[in-house]
Amino acid sequence: MQELSKILETSLGGYSLSRILSAVLTLLVCLIVSRLLLKLAKRLLDRSKKLTARLRQIVLTSAKVVLYLLTGIITAEALGLNTSSLTALVSVLTLGVTLAAEDILGNVAGGLVILTSHPFNIGDDIEVADTVGTVREITLNHTKIETPDGQFVMQPNKELSSSRIINYTAMGRRRVVRTVTASYDAPTATVKQAIGEVLEELNMLEKTITVHGVGCCGLAMEYVTYDCTTSPHGRACAVATGVKRAEPDKLVFTYQGDGDLASIGLAETMSAANRGENITVIFVNNGIYGMTGGQMAPTTLIGQKATTCPAGRSEEWSWLPIKLCETLAAVP
Q: Which helix (H) or strand (E) holds 264?
C-alpha cells in the first residue's frame, strides 16, 4: 500500500498521478454521460414532426458543443486547475461575440423561428417585402429566393421573420396578372403567330383549347393547328369556363376583339374574372368596330376617329374609353 501511495503521489508536470487519474476518470464519465444525453436528445427530436431535419441537426450540434465545453471545465477542475478565470474569460468572449455578431445572431434567431413555425417550405412561391419568387434554400442566416427572372435574392432571416409573408403555394390557387402588349399597328396575324410559336416552344399544342369570338377572331380556327371552338358573340369567357371545367388538364384561352370582349361580352368577362376561373383571355384591342363599318367602340381612344365620330372621340359627348385590363386587375 505504501508503494502504491508513493506511485500515486508521483508528480508529472506538476500534477500528481492520482489527480491525473482522477481527471482522466472524470473525463471518461463526462464523455459517456454526454454520449447518452445526445442519444436521448436525438430520439426525442426524431419523434417531433414539427422540427425539420435541418433544425434537429442544429439543435444536436449546439447541445454537443455545450456538453463538450462543460466536460472540459469539469475535467480541468478535477485536475486542480482554477477554472474561475477560464469561466470569466469564456463569459467575456461570449459577450464580445454577441455584441459583434448582433445581426448574425438576429438572423440565426429568425432562422430558428422560420424553421419551427414553417411559414413556408423549400419550393414554395412567396412574396415578402419587394421580393416575389420561389424559396430555394433555408439556412440559419438567410433564405435564398429565386425570382421569376432568374435572380437569386439572399433575404436575411432577421428581416424575413418580422415581415409580412404571403405564401402563394399554401393558397393552392392564385390569380396572376401579366400584361403582354402589342402595338396598335401590329397586324393581328403577328399576334396569332406569336401565340402559336409560344405554344409550340412549350410543347403545348396538343394540350391547348382556344375559344374564339364571332367578330374579328371568328375565322382564326381556319389557320391554327391546335383545338378550337367558336362561341356566340360575346360569350367566349362563358364557353371557355365550361371547356375548362370539362377538361381541367387543358390550357384553355379565349381570343377576342374589343367588341366581343368589352362590349356585348362585358358581363361574361367580368363574371368569369370575379369567379376566378382558371382560363386565359387574350384581348386584341382594335379600338374600333373593324368588322361592321368602323364605328366607335367602348375602347376607342379620345380623339380617335370613327365612322360614328368623324371628328374623333370626345370626352364631352362619349365620355372616357373603358380601361378593361386595369378594371379586371382590380378584381380581388
A: none
Q: Is the pLDDT of residue 244 over 90?
A: yes
CA dihedral 65, 70, 75, 79 (to 10 degrees): 130
How many residues appear in the chain? 332
Give the integer Cα–Cα distance in Å for 65 and 94: 14
Count other C-beta atoms under 10 Å from residue 251's C-beta.
18
Q: Are 214 and 233 in contact (CB under 8 A)?
A: yes
Can you tell me the distance from the alpha carbon of 55 to that of 104, in angstroms, rounded to the nearest whole number? 17
**Distances, alpha carbon 319 to alpha carbons 240, 270, 301, 326, in Å:** 31, 21, 10, 17
In this predicted structure, what is the pLDDT of residue 222?
A: 67
What is the average pLDDT score of the chain? Answer: 79
CB atoms within 10 A of CB 7: 10
DSSP secondary structure string for all residues of 75-141: HHHHHT--HHHHHHHHHHHHHHHHHHTHHHHHHHHHHHHHHHH-S--TT-EEEETTEEEEEEEE-SS
Task: Tell me the per-residue pLDDT of 275-310, one tens digit each, with 9 for 90 and over.
Answer: 989 999 988 888 888 777 888 888 888 998 988 889
The answer to whether 232 touches 264, Cβ cutoff 8 Å, is: no
SS3 of 43-92: HHHHHCCCCCHHHHHHHHHHHHHHHHHHHHHHHHHHHCCCHHHHHHHHHH
Element housing 303 (H / E): none
Reported as a single tens digit per residue, the pLDDT across 98-144 is 555 556 667 777 777 787 778 888 899 888 888 889 999 888 778 89
239 phi and psi angles, rounded to 5 deg: -65, -40
The answer to whether 25 touches 18, Cβ cutoff 8 Å, is: no
Asked whether the beta carbons of 243 and 212 are under 8 A apart, the reply is: no
Between the alpha carbon of residue 175 and those of residues 267, 273, 331, the distances in Å are 19, 9, 10
